[in-house]
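COURSE: Structural Biology Practicum
ASSIGNMENT: Worksheet 4, Part C
STUDENT ID: 0417
INSTRUCTIONS: Below are two proteins. For each, the amino acid sequence is given first, followed by its structure token string. Answer the questions at the end about the second protein only.

PROTEIN I
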Amino acid sequence: MNNYEEALTWIHGRLRTGIKPGLERMEYIMSRLNHPERRVRAVHIGGTNGKGSTTAMLRSILTEAGFETGTFTSPYIEQFNERISVNGTPISDEEITLLAGKIKTIADEMEDLEIGGPSEFEIITAMAFYYFAYVHPVDIVLFEVGLGGRLDSTNIVHPILSIITTIGMDHLQFLGDTIEKIAGEKAGIIKSGIPVITAVEQPEALCVIAEKAAEKKAALYEYGHDFTGAWTASLETGEQFDFVSAYSTRPSLQTGLVGLHQVQNASMAVMAADYLRMYYSFLIEDEHIKSGLEKAAWPGRFETLSRRPLVIADGAHNEEGVAALVKTIGQRFPDRYITILFAAMRDKPLDRMIGLLKESADKVFLAPFDFPRAARTQDYEQFQSETVQIAQSYQAAIQSFQQNAFKQDVLIITGSLYFISNVKKDMKTILSK
């Protein structure tokens, strides 16, 4: 690889291979790289929703405690490099170029093998393992699952702790069409003897996870049973809650992320920190947990893009995410005029997602945007009504809101994280017009 642009072009060019579940290609790459996955101390984080927020909060706690903390997350919101970060800082363009060149040599030789060449996600995952093992070793790495768990590229790692946040009906074409099947795929990250923390609520899903944990002789810590977070107040910058577990009692903690569901995510992060403190001698003090939670930030999660007028972005990219957003809107803005700008992938349950949004908004605009899997104008036409309209463009819809909004008006931009990424890139230009 000669430069960063060439590296990105090659990486994104692998999108043509599509999603390729399975671990055989990752195992081949790891063997050729002298098994970097065996040299990292990791926490593996899976689930349908809440992975990114939980990762952000646990990273912030560990960073506050003085541990150099790596993260591997997806998708990116502002810059590709943020997918591989140290203490929240994305790695450099030069490091991306170095890593891509290292993996390309192996990827090229795989094209002639029966297993075939790697997908884009497999390449980026391999880059992360190699980076944290050999280029920039860190104290601990938080690996976020990409899709599912059992056959996800990240599942070659043998972590010291696993987290399964929530389970919902998403990616049905890959994970199965029942909550039990999806739970089985998510539970695939549970390793022998490695404890797992979860906030899964559905009894049928929890049963699958408990059975897998018992089979693997892995201790299971359940939200609402072994640890809990009791919401006490909503503050301007987050939620206040009381945390209780067998390891600690922590009153009046505050999240840096807005939304009632963030109490659950924060509780998993605190439980994970307590576990690392108790069983792996991580020196994490009470003030590290408190300040870490308050300082935690995660782009595109009820993020304020503009205060006058008030514009908020939230990546509610599936039905469960939309339901959580609707609950937060009702709790935060009960007397405000709400306009929602929404764009999603066409394989999502658009009818149910738009139906939920209509309940919390005075006006909903549906916005096509430039992405291969994004819903188009024709996908939205059936949902048009007096309160639901198709936007000419998301840029025009935001500009119109900015020019015509009253003091009490709120614009919520939501849907696909790829859409949120596009909006954030354009936001300065849009608001300056």
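PROTEIN II
(use this one for the questions)
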Amino acid sequence: MSAAAENTGRIVVVGSLNADLTIYCERLPQPGETVHGNGFVVNPGGKSANQAVAAGRLGGRVSLVGAVGEDANGAMLEASVAGAGVDVSHVRTSSEPTGVAVIAVDAHGENNIIISAGANGTLSPADVAGASDVLEQAAVVSLCLEVSMDTVLAAAQAGHDGGATVLLNLSPYAEIPAALAQLTDVLLVNAHEAALFLGSSVPGAGAPAGEWDAVRERFAAHGIPQVLVTLGSQGSVVLDSLPSSGSRVAFVAPARVAAVDTTGAGDAFTGAVAVRLAAGDALADAAAFASVAAALATTRKGTQAAYPDTADVERRLRTS
């Protein structure tokens, strides 16, 4: 075990594993339009699997709770996740086929994605209860919305009851019950998701701290004490309502890179935040580390295979 892992509390990721069916093209098609592709690959993906791999490659002690089909895609996913040092003892085999994501990536690295749940749709609160051995050890429980809301809520409750930090990535966006918001310690959203959650627009990059502080107050009114709003190439904003926080609003600068494929960059960000929170970092420091990890993930094609390790991130931090 690396020194980084020895200093990191356990991270439990509960959620999805997908096979990514990715086609590369010069530009993304408009509705009703066909465009020519210039490459096709099948890679391991799924938001939760991606986040687990990202955290594992960055030195985290990670367990993944999920479900795959009894098929080649499921075997590929388990091998990829385990290869990053992630515990897969709670990844169950389902009679449903492994989930898939159909992804188109253009020449600028932008993408669009359609997912089919498959085995992910069978993950249930019973699977969460069956993973109590790792959830009881968790410093961070990382969640997204690619599995049922009942399962997400059960995992959040288990994390809360065990004293873990519950990190919720509100993606793909869906309305969540008030109980889940109350159980969430750190909410990770992009600007679009933040606006949907709050029911009104949020400030853009470069807006003064006072405007963002008003957004912080609105999240706090929902019972969410800490929020990370990602702004793509413009960095991110940390909104912190904890009584112990030194700054209510903190801006995190982006790491500038030449992006090749942005698929899974948000998951790299989430996994990196989870690692640094589990190590005891303040949220703003975790976000600064994650900003570099996510940027580096866009410099290679694919998702999990593109994720950086700790040395990659620290090297970039030393030279920036």
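ANSWER KEY EXCERPT:
Q1: Residues 1-6 have pLDDT under 50 and may be disordered.
Q2: The first helix runs from residue 3 to 6.
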